[in-house]
Amino acid sequence: MPDVMISIGGREFSVACQDGEEHFLHSAAALLDKEASALTAQIGGLPEARMLLMSGLLLADKTAGADDQLKAANERIEALEAEVAQLKSAGGAGPERIEVPVEVIPDSVTDTMAELAARAEALAAEVEEKAAS
């Protein structure tokens, strides 16, 4: 069981841990050190026990907040999964096809338009001939 030196709030501590757990100990100590350093910067010199207690309480508060957020996110995920399951079971068929009637232009109107277009082209040709001569 190795002894690891960690620094919290500018103070050195020797802590024993299991083999292979050194990385986790250093990570936890870094979190505690961050809180302790902020406390020392705000309040000044604190007794060791008070500094460690207050730093631990600040971390516990952050952890409780993160737990609440995680719980709320998990509840939201469960609600959304239930909604998806309900929508899948209710809408077994694909999208509903809707026919929209479209007015059809009568043949007599299209025939009249074609005659008018032919007359306009003939008049345009006449005007071009007269302009050319």
Automatic annotation (TrEMBL):
The keyword Transmembrane does not apply. Residues 63-133 form a coiled coil. The lineage of its organism: Bacteria, Pseudomonadati, Pseudomonadota, Alphaproteobacteria, Rhodobacterales. It holds the Pfam family ZapA. It comes from the Bacteria. InterPro entries: Cell_div_ZapA-like, Cell_div_ZapA-like_sf, Cell_div_ZapA_N. The keyword Aminoacyl-tRNA synthetase does not apply. Keywords: Coiled coil. SUPFAM superfamilies: Cell division protein ZapA-like. This is Cell division protein ZapA.
